[in-house]
Amino acid sequence: MAQHALPLTELASVIRSKNAGPLCVTLDLFFRDQKAYERAAQSEALKLSTIAALYGLLSSQIKRFDLPEILAIKLSMPRTVCAGHPGDGDLYGAQQHAPLLTLRV
């Protein structure tokens, strides 16, 4: 029997973003428990192609790190504008996780 999709926000205890140097941003997802982690790790919603489409990037531009020992998934991708340059609306990369808040897994 297929399980119904749940909002990512119900499975993760932390969803955040931050700079990973001036040219990259990292999205961190920490899950509430093993079951939530496994569900998210296997979900179509967190595949590279889905994340790439969400951020207007190519799948090859995103790196995903599954960290089951700490119930986390980390996604790294290039920033569209170098941190601190004109046109950068998020110097610390702290608001880049917002598109993930709409995902259902």
| Helical segment count | 3
Oligomer: single chain
Highest CATH level, the class of the domain at 8-80: Alpha Beta
Give the uncertain stretches in residue-range form. none
Q: What's the CATH topology name of the domain at 8-80?
A: Alpha-Beta Plaits
**SSE string, helices as H and strands as E:** HEEHHEE
Rounded to an integer in angstroms, the radius of gyration calculated over CA atoms is 14 Å
The CATH architecture of the domain at 8-80 is 2-Layer Sandwich
What spatial order of strands do you see in the largest sheet?
Answer: 1-2-4-3
Count of β-strands:
4
Compact description:
With 105 residues, this protein is of the alpha+beta class. The protein has helices spanning 8-11, 34-42, 48-55; strands at residues 12-19, 24-31, 63-67, 72-78.
SSE blueprint:
Elements: H1 8-11, E1 12-19, E2 24-31, H2 34-42, H3 48-55, E3 63-67, E4 72-78
Antiparallel strand pairs: 1-2, 2-4, 3-4
Which properties best describe this structure?
Alpha-Beta Plaits; alpha+beta; four-stranded antiparallel beta sheet; 105 residues; 3 helices; elongated
Please characterize this protein's 3D structure.
- The protein has 105 residues and is an alpha+beta fold.
- It has a domain at 8-80: Alpha-Beta Plaits (2-Layer Sandwich).
- Helices cover 20% and strands 27% of the residues.
- It is built from three helices and four strands, in the order H-E-E-H-H-E-E.
- The chain has helices at 8-11, 34-42, 48-55, and strands at 12-19, 24-31, 63-67, 72-78.
- It has a four-stranded antiparallel sheet with strand order 1-2-4-3.
- Strand 1 (12-19) and strand 2 form a beta hairpin.
- The longest helix is centred in the middle third of the chain and has 9 residues, at 34-42.
- The mean pLDDT is 94.
